[in-house]
């Protein structure tokens, strides 16, 4: 990330929230800009997992395998849980 962006973690209504905010500099001091987004921890996890899936060959392979298990889940519902434990990259 560049020096014009800031990431911070705060508590909002008893939930940890990750803030991504662009900054602008006025007289050499950073100030929060208009552009920004806040995500819950779950949203950050899903976003990171999807980014990993589509940014690397191994992640794309994981995505294909996961989709295959989702299609099979109509036949066997327990396979989804099993596949997530085996193929999770972390």
UniProtKB/TrEMBL annotation:
Residues of the signal peptide: none
Gene3D superfamilies linked: Transcriptional Coactivator Pc4, Chain A
Lineage: superkingdom: Eukaryota
InterPro entries assigned: PC4_C (IPR003173), ssDNA-bd_transcriptional_reg (IPR009044), Sub1/Tcp4-like (IPR045125)
Transmembrane segments: 49-70
Any single GO BP term: positive regulation of transcription initiation by RNA polymerase II
Occurrences of domain Transcriptional coactivator p15 (PC4) C-terminal (ranges): 2-44
Main location per the UniProt record: nucleus
Pfam families assigned to the protein according to its UniProt record, in alphabetical order: PC4
A molecular-function term among this protein's GO annotations: DNA binding
GO cellular-component term (any): transcription regulator complex
The family this protein is said to belong to: Belongs to the transcriptional coactivator PC4 family.
Name listed for the protein in its UniProt record: (wild Malaysian banana) hypothetical protein
């Amino acid at each position: 990330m560049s020096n014009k962006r800031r990431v911070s973690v705060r508590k909002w209504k008893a939930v940890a929230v990750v803030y991504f905010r662009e900054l602008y500099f006025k007289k050499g001091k950073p100030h929060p800009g208009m552009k920004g987004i806040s995500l819950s921890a779950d949203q950050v996890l899903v976003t990171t997992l999807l980014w990993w899936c589509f940014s690397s060959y191994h992640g794309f392979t994981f995505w294909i395998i996961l989709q295959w298990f989702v299609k099979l889940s109509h036949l066997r519902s327990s396979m989804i849980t099993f596949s997530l434990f085996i193929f999770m990259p972390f």
